[in-house]
Amino acid sequence: MATQVHFEDVNEGDEIPKLAKNCSTQQLVMWAAASGDFYQIHYDKDFAQSTGLKGLIVHGALKHAFLGQLVHDFAGERGRVKSFGCQYRGMDEPTQDITCRGVVTKKYAEGKQNFIELDIWTENPQGQKTTPGTAVVTLPSRS
Amino acid sequence: MTQQQESQSVITDEMRAAVGKEGEPATLEVDKTGCRMFARAVGHTDLIFYDEDYAKSKGYRGIVAPPGFLGTQTFKPAAGGGAQARPGMGFSIPYKRVLNGGTEIEYFDTICAGDVLTARNKITGFNERSGSMGPMLMTNRETTFTNQDGKVVAVERGTVIQY
């Protein structure tokens, strides 16, 4: 994990560090076991194709969890993830790059907490936002 | 909404009556193995999700549940798979295909291994839309997670799309 980012260092419009993912089918099986989602379109190619899909697809909830990692790593040791969510707009395939990205949309202090609001998303190799969403994290202050 | 669309609605009185009603509460255990498996599957590198001593050295009660992990439901063979019946899936809808539309989790406290969560699920509303995939029914649901001390620690909001 990177060094701690502070509230004062962050400005609206800033992009946060990217998180690069590229799922092997093994990772999809690990996710199936970890999440309890055993729908076969994520690991059985014949089954996936029988439903009309081109092939295997990455679990939407796994991409949600990737975005969770993106904002957790951004918030750092002394920050906290308050909320994060996304919509599953486009499918992603295994062994393709999934880039998790985020941009700061708002910063404000409320009570003793320093809030950062973000637009977050996953991006496919064509640059399409397949999983757009938002997040709120708190960051420590330098003071 | 036009008159014609209204007459084609798949939302029944039974469905309307179900909005806001809580289903049977479910118990979810947050254990060390579950946290580690989830963190590993995602690819987390922060040791607070894996190492109990490390997590404690950072001020946590124990291994931290990674973002998105809200415990593992107790498997019940008699229930035919153990999956919690999702609201919106029990109605007879003339659409065959199902998609997960989205997920949002709001946290009110940290969840750690050892916690036992009670999940209460309800439908918050139905929407209909006609998109590129044809007519769709969207079911919005909300699940509230309460820990063993009676504190609401997380709320998950999700949308199921049938089309």
Produce a short descriptive summary:
The complex is a heterodimer of chains A (143) and B (163). With 143 residues, chain A is of the alpha+beta class.
Could you explain how this protein is built, in words?
The complex is a heterodimer of chains A (143) and B (163). Chain A has a single domain, classed as Hotdog Thioesterase (Thiol Ester Dehydrase, Chain A, Roll). Helices cover 23% and strands 34% of the residues of chain A. Chain A has a 5-stranded antiparallel beta sheet with strand order 1-3-4-5-2. Chain A is elongated. Chain B is 17% helix and 34% strand. In chain B, strands 2-1-4-5-6-3 form a 6-stranded antiparallel beta sheet. Chain B folds into 2 domains: 106 residues, Roll (Thiol Ester Dehydrase, Chain A), CATH 3.10.129.10; 39 residues, no CATH class. The interface between A and B is medium-sized, with 31 and 30 residues. Strand 2 of chain A pairs antiparallel with strand 3 of chain B, so a sheet runs across the interface.
Keywords for this structure?
heterodimer; A: 143 residues; alpha+beta; Thiol Ester Dehydrase, Chain A; five-stranded antiparallel sheet; 3 helices; 23% helix; B: 163 residues; 2 domains; six-stranded antiparallel sheet; 4 helices
